[in-house]
Write the C-alpha cells for this entry.
Amino acid sequence: MAEAPDMLSVAVTPRPPSQIIAWRRQRSVSYGEFLARTRAWQRLLTRTSGQTFALSISDAAEFAAALFGAWQARKTIYLPGDRLPRTCCALRTIVDGYLGEFAPEWKPRMPTSADGLAADVELNPLDSNFAGLVIYTSGSTGVAQAIPKKLSQMSAEIATLEAQFGDVIDNADIVATVSHQHIYGLLFNVLWPLSAGRAFSAMNFGSLEGLTMALAQRESVLVSTPAHLQRLPESSLWALAAKRLRAVFSSGGPLPVAVARETRRLLRHMPIEVYGSSETGGIAWRQQQTAHDEKWTPLPNIKWRIDVKEGVLEIRSAHLPDEEWFRTADRARPAGEDHFILMGRVDRIVKVEGKRISLNAIEERLTASPLARDARALVLDGRRQRVAAVIVPSVSGRDRLAQLGKLVFNRMLRDFLRETIEPVGLPRLWRYVDALPIDAQGKTTQAVLVALFDNWDSRPRQPIECRVHQSDQHAVFELIAPSDLLYFDGHFRDMPILAGVVQIEWIIGFGRQCFDLLPSFRAIHALKFHRVISPKLPITLELMHDPLKSCLSFNISSRLGPHASGRIIFRAGNV
C-alpha cells in the first residue's frame, strides 16, 4: 500500500505568520498566534511528568495548539467522548493528567503566562509512527473502548480527503456544527484544514444567525451531521448563506433522503455523506440524488470486500494501524464492482444525533437499578430518532411506580442513567410491562417492542382492509400493505417486505375482531411462509375458527400464489 504524504507535519512547517488559520467569529487567528500557543503547550507538557493526557477544549484553535504541542512533547492525547463523572473516573486509571476544561476536581492544566513566552522552543517534524491520539469511545458491549491512532493513520486520512474532495473545497473556509472532540469533527474542522492551508471556525455554531453569518462572510464549506441538518429551520437567511457555500458534508449516521433534499432546497447543495467509524476512519462517500441512490463509493486507496457467509463489510486501508483486513460492524452487499450498499449494523451500537450509543449499556444500567427487574432499549425511527425503553419493574419498583406515578418514575430512572449515558442516549419514551412481550415464536423482537409505542410515529401500522365475508367460523379479508407502513423500515431498504411477525400480529388481530378467541396465545403449528409480501400488493386473508380445538387456521394468498399458512392455538389462562 502506497505511503501517504505526511500531512500533519505540514501543519507545523513554517509559513507566513500573518496567514489566517482560524476565525473566532469576527476575529481571525493567525499562524503566528497558533505557533505561539503550540509552543506554550509544548513547554508546559515537556515540563510535566507523565505520558498520557485527556484533552477537552471547546475552542478549536486552542484545541489544535494543545494537540500539536502535546505531540511535540511526545505526549499521547486521549479524547473522551464526554466529560461525564463516570468517564473521567475511568480515565483516571489510564491517563497521567487532564488538560483544558475538565471540572476542577480533576486538576486540569493550562499554559501559564511563563509558558507563553516559549518563543525559543523549536518545533520538529512529527514522528509518523507515534501513537499520539486515543479516541475514547464505546464498544459493542457498552464497555468503554480506547482506539489508538498513530499519526501516520491520521495523516493518511487527511491525504485521502484532500485527494477526493480538495478540488470541491478549493480555498474555502470550514464552518462546522460538530465537535472536534470526536474523530469526524477533529479531521474535518481541525487537522484537514490546518494541514491543507484552509481556515476553520474556532467556534461551533448553535444559533441560526451565527451559522448563516459565518457561511455568508467568506467562501465556505459546512461540516455537519444528519441530526443538525434535519433541524435546519425555514429562513430567508439561507439564501444569503448559500451564495458563498461550496459544499455540505454530513457524517455520523445515515442521512435520510428527505433531509438531504431539504438541505439542497435550503442551501443549494446536496450533502456529501462520508461513511466510516472511529476504528476505521473514512471508508466511502455518496450523494443521494434519489430515494434509491443508496450506493457508497469507496474513498481513494480503500480496499473492500464482503464476507460471503455473513455479509459483513471488511476493509484495508492506510487509515488502519496495519495492513490486515478489518471486519466492520456493518452488513453490506455489492452494487457493481466499485460500489456497495449498507444493510444495517451487526452489533447493538446505534447512532443517535451523531453519537454512538450502546443499547446494551442502557439495559445493563437499568437492570442494575433496584427499580427494574428487566429492560430493553431500542431506537424508534422517524423524522427524529428517539431512544425508548421497555421496563419490567421489580417488586419495589412496581410499588414506587404506583405511589409516584409514571412521570416521576421516568425521571428517577433517567437520573440513574445520567452518570454513565450521554444525554442524547437517555430514553425519551417509556413503557412498563409485567413481562417483556414475545412474538409467536416466543422471542422478544424489535417488532413486538416497537408495537408498544403505537403513538410514536404517525405512519400506519395496519393494512388497508375490506371484509369480504364473515360467518360463525369463517372470514375473508382483502388487504393491502401501504408503502409507508412503519414495519417496512429495515425489511429491507432495497426490497421492502412484510415481516412474518407482523403478519401473525395482523392475523390474531383480525381473528379477535371476528371470533370469540380464548385470551392467551399457546402455540403455532404448521407455520409456512411461501413467498414475500411487498408494498401495495393486494392479498387475501382467509380465517377459519375451530372453537372446540381453540384453533385459528389461516391462509394468505394473492395473484402470485400462496404467501403464508398455519394454525394458531389459544388457551384460557396464563399457565
About this structure: Confidence is low (pLDDT under 50) at residues 1-5, 138-144. The longest strand covers residues 561-571. The chain has 15 helices and 29 strands. The first helix runs from residue 7 to 10.
